[in-house]
Amino acid sequence: MVDEPRNFVLLRELEQAEKGIGDGRCSYGLKYPDDAMMYRWDGTIFDPHHSSSENGFYSLEIYCGDEYPKKPPTVTFTQPLRMSGLHDDMCTVDFSAIDGLKTWKSSYGMAHVLKCLYSHIVKHKPRSLR
User: How much is the pTM?
Assistant: First the structure.
């Protein structure tokens, strides 16, 4: 089996992001349109509880390194949260603690990551530290 080049995977994900994912609870897109290597992305997860987020949604920064999609992206909430599944900085997602992300597969993408995080938020009701 031949691995698909990183940029092909990311171009497909960009196209998917522009069309929208699922029912609109999550979205993502390229942070800088002139980022030819497509390293930095922004993500949004709408707050199912309408209580613990700023303005009804959570903002995330997604970094797809050179090893993506073989290795998962780094996903960071832009505001600190009190919620399981985050590293000590209370912003960076600990994939090993999130259902659906514990064992990373290169077939996963950013849409899958956001959907898993949405489910985690529904289950764990985070609290903002601001």
Answer: 0.92
Torsion over CA of 100, 86, 42 and 37, rounded to 10 degrees?
-80
Q: For the chain, how long is the longest CA-to-CA vector?
A: 48
**Residue predicted with more confidence, 118 or 21:** 118
State both tokens at 6: 């990183």
Q: Counting Cβ atoms within 10 Å, is residue 124 exposed (0-12), middle (13-18) or buried (19+)?
A: middle
pLDDT tens across 48-60, in order?
Answer: 877 666 678 999 9
Backbone angles phi, psi at 59, to 5 degrees: -100, 140
DSSP element (H, E) containing 57: strand 57-63
- Residues 29 and 14 sit within 8 Å (Cβ to Cβ): yes
- φ/ψ of 2, rounded to 5, equals -95, 135
